[in-house]
From TrEMBL:
<dbReference type="InterPro" id="IPR013131">
    <property type="entry name" value="Mannitol_DH_N"/>
</dbReference>
<keyword id="KW-0560">Oxidoreductase</keyword>
<keyword id="KW-0520">NAD</keyword>
<dbReference type="Pfam" id="PF08125">
    <property type="entry name" value="Mannitol_dh_C"/>
</dbReference>
<dbReference type="InterPro" id="IPR008927">
    <property type="entry name" value="6-PGluconate_DH-like_C_sf"/>
</dbReference>
<protein>
    <submittedName>
        <fullName>Mannitol dehydrogenase</fullName>
    </submittedName>
</protein>
<dbReference type="InterPro" id="IPR013328">
    <property type="entry name" value="6PGD_dom2"/>
</dbReference>
<dbReference type="Pfam" id="PF01232">
    <property type="entry name" value="Mannitol_dh"/>
</dbReference>
<dbReference type="InterPro" id="IPR013118">
    <property type="entry name" value="Mannitol_DH_C"/>
</dbReference>
<feature type="domain" description="Mannitol dehydrogenase N-terminal">
    <location>
        <begin position="3"/>
        <end position="164"/>
    </location>
</feature>
<feature type="domain" description="Mannitol dehydrogenase C-terminal">
    <location>
        <begin position="205"/>
        <end position="382"/>
    </location>
</feature>
<dbReference type="InterPro" id="IPR036291">
    <property type="entry name" value="NAD(P)-bd_dom_sf"/>
</dbReference>
Amino acid sequence: MKKALIFGAGKIGQGFIGDLLHEDGYEIIFADVSDEVIEEINEKNCYSLFLTNHNYEEKIIDNVFALSLLKNQEQIIEAITQVDIITTSVMKTNLVSVAPILAKGLKRRLDEGRSRVLVMACENAIMGTDTLVNLMIDTNIITLDQLKEIGSYPNTGVDRFVFGGIYKGKEGTAVSDSHELAIERQKLDDPDSKPITGAEYVDNLEAVLKRKIYLVNCWLAITSYIGYTKGYKMVDEALRDEDIQKIVRKAVIESAAGLERKFGFSNDEMNDYINDMIIKRYDDYNQEGINDPVARVARQPIRKVSPDDRIMGPGYIAAEYNLPNEHLLYGAAYVFKYDNPEDDEAVKLQEYIKIHGIETAIEKFSGLKQGSEMFQLVLNYYNSI
């Protein structure tokens, strides 16, 4: 049986990457820091997924076991020398903790003369595998030339609706049918191969990543920032507010039009993507047991209103092609109203506005120049809220 090692046994690790690899017949080894998660997996050598689009039908992922990143490092290093595929799902900020042990394992694999291995960071981050490679080089355990000799390292884009909770009386992860794992084709040893059947193999990963961030993340972010101002606590509440969704749908259309022009997506491709990854998710969010706080989606407003992120990024692309972007800018204005006292970035943002004024804040955090047409629109919208 083929073997895979997944760093991170969280919702994406179990609910997405683990699911795809299980479908391809892999035995799966998880490496995680949580004793509780490790014990739960090893108790039965399986775990449960619940399919939101099929009345929470239970799906068993078997042939799995887990190792502790803190207590079983030697076993993990040995596993790295033997598996057929290695992935991470730990969040980009935690890759620095994975890099040393992965570097040790790959160096041993090379020294033992074993076969090349596929390594991918499956994170909600742009070019996450490149980040992981650089972090491994920084350990001085393995060099770039040695990494190139022992493996291939394509970047990926990931997207799936996943939520942990109690479903049908069991603890597990709820997952939707719609998903996207995009893999850089040109960085595979064989560009025509498909090492994971359920993945999409692409030549322009930047286009795929920005499509996801500038459509799906944009949709949820603007929904949440406006929803917060209207007093909603949960994302599904804001998604059911038709006044909010009229604005958000127009923002998504503006974003899609810019993406079509910049990256060459056809209108049919874009409409299919929006239908699969956004419209169908309205139903997902309406499922019983799906609880997603507005505060989670809206967290880190300074990052999310930056020039290349989910709201202003597509706003700038639309402007580049002289396309409408008023609803995207309307959404940006609500970011500057986000004053959640439990969010460190929100507190920092509001303190900056109080000291320096909203005009300076818009320019500093969104990159819009004072006096420009886009700047004035955001300012006017902000003042009208």
